[in-house]
Design a protein that fits this description.
- The structure holds two protein chains of two kinds.
- By secondary structure, chain A is mainly alpha-helical.
- Chain A folds into two domains: about 25-130, Orthogonal Bundle (Cytochrome Bc1 Complex, Chain D, domain 2), CATH 1.10.760; about 150-250, Cytochrome Bc1 Complex, Chain D, domain 2 (Orthogonal Bundle).
- Helix content of chain A is about 35%, strand content about 5%.
- In chain A, a hairpin with a 2-residue loop joins strand 1 and strand 2 (about 60-65).
- The radius of gyration of chain A is 19 Å and the shape is globular.
- Chain B is mainly beta.
- Chain B starts with a helix and ends with a strand.
- Classes of the chains: A mainly alpha, B mainly beta.
- The interface of A and B includes residues 50, 103 and 255 of A.
- Bound molecules: copper (II) ion.
- Copper (II) ion (CU) binds near residues 513, 544, 579, 583 and 590 of chain B.
- Copper (II) ion binds next to loops of chain B.
Chain lengths: ~260, ~600
């Protein structure tokens, strides 16, 4: 069972190379990786650890295999940086420390900070991209304006949801059953589910600012693109956040009335 | 199930012809008869037609039984400690149990809309510690409980049947002093009373209590939301069994909701411990006392809403009370006894009556060990025009043995369909392999779709189903979910963490197959530790367990569920926390270390 990255993001290779961690740090990072990470992410960092083979999610009768992150691709979903760029060390530290809500990625607050930094250094050895490329410049995201969550903003956001065609994947009611939802695949060619807003917290975080961040950065390696170019008005972006928050208040997908 | 039935029959027929080819003789030389159950069998992978919701008596639980397979599909812990699920161990369940681990469930009832089940809630009583619990049908777990004050023997429970279940009523079978704090002459039983309690179904709070001088046993409501009923077998007010059996007539007590609501609106009550207490003694207008033969037990209302049937227990009769005459009884236009329009003799030890929706009643006969089928209209006609040698009884069936409650499919609704009857027999005696002095009960499935009753199946049951309702699958199934809303629990964990406030440590822990959200948790000896565990797996039927070795803690958390547990870390050392509920190929590896540093 091998998975090849079918979409390769190529960027100009003229940027200066990022400072490399010491060999000692990387060595310690490998020890941590072998102790904590290998079971899911695998010996080769390709997400083909023992766990990944059997972990499945089901929705609308679909059975989907969810693989842990494949570090060999150098593609990351949860970043503060623009679509197509590498995440910052702070981004990686946040994920390693806090884990990813509702995924198999646990928290590692129980591990010393130095070990968390070292394991990040080691993870970077799996992809050439880290040697050739620089992390993107983090997007600046202001605090959510006070109108977020208001009835007016939510109504406007419903319009943005339609204009931006979010329903194509996430469905009219946000339960992830849009017309395109059954044919979605990720960059590795694996079937992937559109998020069901009514099921609870988002992997990328559920505060207004975090939802905003997900629109702007997109989730690289998945069909969720960045809406930074398409949605230029700051007002529209926050209105869409309001509508997402409203969808999250809906009934669970499995509940029928 | 029905879609597969022809196939089942053809397989059974094929098996029979095969056995005939081989001689088909049983060891005693007789021909093998096909079991009447074969046509009702639920094949592997097929579903039952009905959800049966059964009480568990002094086991304290509620059970879901598939009908007609009689398979026990779930045991819902209510008033018991259930280490399997963690009920009685988690903070959430402890808060609903109020420190009482003993309970006695008798009657499980569903919430109603317009005279049939709406698939929202189940209600169940606790006769031992006098409580009412509500079960959410979407997840089949208890979500609220309420203590019933001023009562003992909280037995009969019935929800309002129309237009919707706003009230649930409960009866106190044991007369007690209303304020039972040791004051007054405790031995003077004449000062005791029975209480009819009204609970708000939504808020699960006591609305009011109607105090009577008699004991109140089983309960029913009418189909119009205007009356509720209680049998009273101790109108004598006796404190000993001889005193309780002294008089030949006892009562069906009828409560007028119109008059109760008027009394509440007019503030015509006193308040004890914050609860409005209404005077419902005879002659107050809130109640009517309808004389029926001595020591009645069951009261059940026919699906057309017209009749309440009361069984005499020590009288071989059933009394049919015409509910449409109750307005005249309360108005004083007729005597209470005039509302009894039939009293057929049906057999010895009649307890409970159920209905097929075709005008027939089925009454359990405890002493005769029989189910008796009788026609209500025929009984009324014969009461008006007695004819020598004529009877309302249509059929009798021996059961095994000593039946208590009996219930037909959908019989407590206006959609009674007369397909199946369950006989909840108290004594199994010789029906199963001998398992020692404490034997199982025997719950029998009976086909009542034809003129004669046909015994289909024995099923053993652990202590001790008292009553059951049979609800059509299509009413319940659409409401049942595979997972709760993640954020339903205010403390739901999406990011694991350890926080400390003085000697209080809170560990928030995700459980996602096959890892907990942390690998190590360190605390100090003597810390008060709270684990809040959320199962963040959204896959149906993927539950995680959470047990702490040597710390006497275990619970199971379903998809998106959150449960918490609080304890004192009083044993220093290394203790493995592990997942107890098989979840994954690497389930055995799903564990973390709980490290308790010794006090220096
Ligand atoms: Cu598990």
């Amino acid at each position: 069972m091998t998975r090849g990255l079918t979409v390769i993001v190529l960027l100009a290779l003229t940027m200066p190379i990022a400072p490399i961690a010491s060999a000692q740090d990387v060595e310690r990072g490998e020890e941590v990786y072998t102790s904590r990470c290998v079971i899911c992410h695998g010996d080769n960092g390709d997400g083909m650890g023992l766990v990944g083979i059997v972990h499945r999610a089901q929705a609308n009768g679909l059975v989907t295999t969810i693989y842990p992150r494949d570090f060999t691709a150098g593609v990351f979903k949860f970043r503060s940086t623009p679509s197509g760029t590498l995440p910052t060390d702070d981004d990686l530290m946040r994920i390693v420390t806090e884990g990813i809500s509702r995924s198999g990625m646990p928290s590692h607050t129980d591990m010393p900070e130095a070990d968390r930094l070292n394991v990040i250094s080691f993870i970077k050895t799996f992809s050439q991209r880290w040697a050739e490329d620089e992390p993107g410049e983090p997007l600046e995201i202001a605090a959510a304006p006070s109108f977020v969550g208001s009835a007016e903003s939510t109504t406007r956001g419903e319009g943005v949801y339609a204009t931006m065609q979010c329903f194509q994947c996430h469905g009219e009611t946000g339960v992830g059953d849009g017309p395109a939802s059954e044919t979605l695949t990720d960059s590795w060619g694996d079937q992937i589910l559109a998020f069901d807003f009514t099921s609870g917290p988002l992997k990328g975080g559920s505060t207004p600012e975090m939802i905003y961040r997900t629109f702007m950065t997109g989730l690289d390696g998945t069909p969720m693109p960045s809406y930074q170019p398409a949605m230029t008005e700051e007002q529209d972006r926050w209105d869409l956040v309001s509508y997402c928050l409203e969808l999250m208040r809906g009934a669970p997908a499995t509940q029928q009335d | 199930m029905s879609s597969l039935r022809p196939l089942t029959i053809s397989i059974a027929a094929a098996a029979m012809s095969l056995s005939l080819a081989c001689g088909g003789a049983t060891p005693d030389g007789g021909q093998e008869a096909e079991s009447p159950y074969a046509a009702h069998e639920v094949a592997p992978g097929e579903y039952d037609d009905y959800y049966g919701f059964s009480s568990g008596g002094h086991s304290g639980e509620v059970r879901i039984v598939g009908i007609p397979s009689m398979r026990v599909l779930k045991r819902i812990p209510v008033w018991n400690i259930d280490p399997g699920s963690g009920w009685g161990i988690t903070n959430e369940s402890k808060a609903m149990m109020g420190g009482k681990w003993v309970g006695d469930t008798h009657h499980v009832q569903g919430s109603y809309v317009d005279g049939t089940y709406d698939g929202k809630w189940l209600f169940v009583n606790d006769k031992a510690n006098n409580r009412l619990a509500r079960i959410r049908i979407d997840i089949f777990e208890v979500d609220a409980t309420v203590e019933i004050p001023h009562t003992q023997g909280t037995h009969g429970v019935f929800p309002q049947r129309a237009p919707t279940t706003e009230w649930v009523i409960l009866n106190s079978e044991f007369r007690t002093p209303l304020v039972n704090d040791g004051s007054g002459d405790m031995l003077d039983a004449s000062t005791y009373g029975g209480v009819h309690t009204i609970v708000d179904a939504e808020r699960m709070e006591v609305v009011a209590q109607v105090q009577t001088e008699v004991n109140l046993d089983l309960a029913a409501t009418d189909y119009s939301g205007r009356y509720s009923f209680a049998t009273s077998y101790n109108s004598e007010g006796g404190a000993t069994i001889s005193e309780m059996l002294a008089s030949d007539l006892d009562y069906l007590v009828v409560f007028s909701w119109d008059n109760i609501k008027a009394a509440l609106a007019n503030n015509d009550y006193r308040t004890v411990d914050g609860v409005p207490i209404l005077d419902g003694t005879e002659g107050t207008g809130l109640t009517a006392y309808i004389p029926v033969p001595k020591n009645p037990h069951g009261v059940n209302v026919s699906p057309d809403g017209n009749y309440a049937v009361v069984s005499g227990k020590v009288s071989p009769t059933a009394s049919v009370i015409d509910i449409t005459m109750l307005d005249d009884v309360f108005a004083g236009n007729i005597e209470p006894r005039d509302a009894v329009v039939a009293e057929p003799e049906i057999g010895l030890g009649p307890l409970h009556t159920t209905f097929d929706g075709r005008g027939n009643a089925y009454t359990s006969l405890f002493i005769d060990s029989q189910e008796v089928k009788w026609n209500i209209q025929r009984a009324i006609d014969l009461q008006a025009n007695p004819q020598e040698g004529e009877t309302a009884v249509v059929d009798r069936l021996d059961i095994h043995y000593q039946v208590g409650h009996t219930m037909a499919s959908m019989a407590e609704t206006n959609e009674a369909d007369g397909r199946y009857l369950i006989s909840l027999n108290k004594i199994s005696k010789d029906r199963f392999l001998n398992v020692g002095p404490l034997k199982p009960e025997n719950d029998q499935l009976i086909d009542i779709s034809g003129e004669s009753m046909v015994l289909l199946k024995d099923e053993s049951a652990y202590i001790e189903p008292h009553d059951i309702i049979l609800v059509r699958r299509d009413i319940i199934e659409p409401h049942v979910v595979d997972r709760v809303r993640l954020e339903e629990h205010p403390e739901a964990v999406t990011q694991s963490s350890i926080t400390r406030d003085g000697n209080r440590v809170t560990v928030r822990l995700t459980a996602t197959a096959p890892v907990f959200g942390l690998q190590e948790v360190e605390v100090n000896e003597g810390d008060e530790v709270t684990f809040i565990v959320t199962n963040t797996d959204e896959i149906p039927d993927l539950a995680h367990g959470f047990a702490i070795s040597n710390y006497n803690i275990q619970m199971v958390v379903g998809p998106f569920q959150t449960k918490s547990v609080t304890f004192t870390a009083d044993k220093p050392g290394v203790y493995w926390i592990y997942c107890t509920n098989f979840c994954h190929a690497l389930h055995l590896e799903m564990r973390l270390r709980f490290i308790v540093r010794p006090r220096s």
